[in-house]
Amino acid sequence: MARTAVSGRLRWRVATLSEARWETSTARTLALDVPDWPGHLPGQHVDVRLTAEDGYSAQRSYSIASAWPHPDGKVELTVQRLDDGEVSPYLTDVVEPGEQVELRGPVGGWFVWRDKQPAPVLLIGGGSGVVPLMAMVRARATAGAKQPFRLIYSVRTPEDVLYADELHRRVRDDAGLDVHFVYTRKTPEGWSSPPKRIDVAALNTYGWPPDFQPDCYVCGPTTFVETAADILVALGHDPRRIRTERFGGTS
């Protein structure tokens, strides 16, 4: 993912995988024990480095999925497998509990949410771009914050939804959280609209009105982020309240 702001706490730590769970058939959440972890804000990311026996190394950036403090003191990453990737296939299919990776962070100071921000929040995620947004949802609950959240989540199919059970539970138990899905390839049985990409109607109907002055966070593939941000501006949202995070590829 493209990042700009840096927290200043950038040294490599050896993290031990304590638990792993599948979110979908291609995405896995890793719960890591990280010595002397300084804490993080929702929306920040880490760099993960793998080093082979011959000394070759590769590193990638991954958004942090968990809030801090985590109940078990873990740092959680949700990794989507890229079949042609150097790092993600190892993290999804190879590394097992008890094994170690190198981790550096937390990184980022712009695309973050703080529980002292009083405004309502609009989260717009495309695919695995929902990961840092989920960290914000979790952080809101951890802090007992009351700002109303709306999440618009664009995803290919129902089977590709990350955190499906948790999102359902959180919406059921928290009147201050609303989630709407936009399916781009296949919809659930009985869904009211055909598959489509995110559009003006979705953001106008399920987002906050501009006069509510929400803090908006948009994360996903570059084309998705540009489209969603342009729609928000066209609908009258203050560009200064729109924060974006993007990664390569298409939606």
TrEMBL record:
It comes from Paractinoplanes brasiliensis. This is Ferredoxin-NADP reductase. Residues 10-113 form the FAD-binding FR-type domain. The lineage of its organism: Bacteria, Bacillati, Actinomycetota, Actinomycetes, Micromonosporales. One of its GO terms (molecular function) is 2 iron, 2 sulfur cluster binding. InterPro entries: Cbr1-like_FAD-bd_dom, FAD-bd_FR_type, Flavoprot_Pyr_Nucl_cyt_Rdtase, FNR_nucleotide-bd, MRET, OxRdtase_FAD/NAD-bd, Riboflavin_synthase-like_b-brl. Keywords: 2Fe-2S, Iron, Iron-sulfur, Metal-binding. CDD domains: FNR_iron_sulfur_binding_3. The keyword Ubl conjugation does not apply. Its cofactor is FAD.
